[in-house]
Design brief:
2 copies of one chain form a homodimer. By secondary structure, the first copy, chain A, is mainly α. Chain A folds into 2 domains: 1-51, Arc Repressor Mutant, subunit A (Orthogonal Bundle), CATH 1.10.10.60; 54-201, Orthogonal Bundle (Tetracycline Repressor, domain 2). The first copy, chain A, is built from 9 helices and no strands. Chain A is elongated, with a radius of gyration of 20 Å. Chain A starts with a helix and ends with a helix. In chain A, 28% of the residues are buried. The A-B interface holds A 111-112, 115, 118-119, 121-122, 152, 156, 158-168, 170-171, 174-175, 189, 192-193, 196-197, 199-201 and B 111-113, 115, 118-119, 122, 152, 156, 158-160, 162-168, 170-171, 174-175, 189, 192-193, 196-197, 199-201. Chains A, B: Keywords: DNA-binding. Chains A, B: This is Transcriptional regulator. Chains A, B: Pfam families: TetR_N. Chains A, B: Residues 8-68 form the HTH tetR-type domain.
């Protein structure tokens, strides 16, 4: 095992431990000390890998997003139709947000404070749009849909999916973290829109 | 003319004058003094009608929204099809936001600061949803569309229209006032979604 591999392993372990703490207690209630203790690491060594909590938090969010993309790609490979795929993805997204509720990922998106996650989340949306374009192209090829411009349709679909999240937030809930009831309403609306979207693009054959 | 009528007239004149100033210079760059001067009113009399700038601003926004509803109702009465109606309404909304650009109406919606407009805008969205429900019901009756639950469809459509506005706001533009280019992108996306919406609900007959 090379020095680089050992370093990568250590970094991996730190991200895993931090993910557990962040997900359970939330980033604001987690200290670097606690993460070091969980791993029986010296604080100095922890700071060698991650100079501050913000950089560790970013690495954790990156990890979570990678897991998310692995999961949706796997689901897409196994679903039988484009309709089933899109509806399943809505549930995966819902479960994902609920699982990492305490991470404040949703809050960050709708917050106006200087959000260090902005770029990560923006890139994730771009990545999911490309993924969506592939799904629609595949549905086109299979004759399930008739879409002239799959990228444009994917962008539109992603805009609408993300948009629903914001538009149902009334004045009272706007800056709050998404609660479970609101998440359920969003989930239901996203499914209704998906059904419309599919109906609109359904092949005439 | 009764005392009440005269009072109403005066109030009306103040709102008209304030609207002009607010729309041109923006609320933050308009003073109560300037509005009083425009009307050759004493400051005391102006404050008799509106105890502070915030209450006058609310009255102006109320007026603008009433004008908006009058306009969309008129457009809806004259358009030949539901498709034409919905597409026209998007342009009316676009022009309306651009006309009152300096009022910061858009900013207020996406801002996290304590927004006194929250309730007014929330009510306006509710009012437009009811209006939309009527349009869809009419389209149903004319056989243009086949919608089982027009209120649900109207809510969904309104969510999506509002949502697009938020979802295309990237990290860099999120808390800024909507600029004209962004407004054009939103306008285009809203029309694309409207076409999909209509196609999905189009009557089979």
């Amino acid at each position: 095992m090379s020095q680089v591999d050992i370093q990568d392993d250590k970094q991996e372990l730190i991200v895993e431990a931090a993910l557990k703490r962040f997900a359970h207690y939330g980033p604001s209630k987690t200290t670097m000390n606690e993460i070091a203790d969980d791993l029986h690491l010296s604080k100095a060594l922890l700071y060698y890998y991650f100079p501050d909590k913000a950089s560790l938090f970013k690495a954790v969010v990156d990890r979570i997003l990678n897991n998310y993309f692995e999961e949706i790609e796997c689901e897409a490979n196994h679903a039988k139709s484009i309709e089933k795929t899109l509806l399943t993805l809505i549930d995966v997204r819902h479960d994902f947000f609920m699982k990492y509720y305490n991470m404040g990922l949703n809050r960050n998106i709708i917050d106006c404070t200087e959000g260090s996650l902005d770029e990560i989340i923006y890139n994730a949306i771009k990545r999911e749009t490309i993924f969506m374009k592939k799904l629609l192209t595949k549905a086109n090829d299979k004759g399930e849909m008739q879409i002239e411009n799959p990228l444009e349709a994917a962008e539109l679909y992603m805009d609408v999916m993300a948009g629903v999240r914001f538009s149902i937030l009334t004045p009272n809930t706007r800056s709050a973290i998404l609660d479970e009831d609101t998440a359920k309403v969003i989930n239901r609306k996203q499914k209704q829109i998906t059904e419309l979207f599919i109906r609109a693009y359904r092949s005439i054959n």
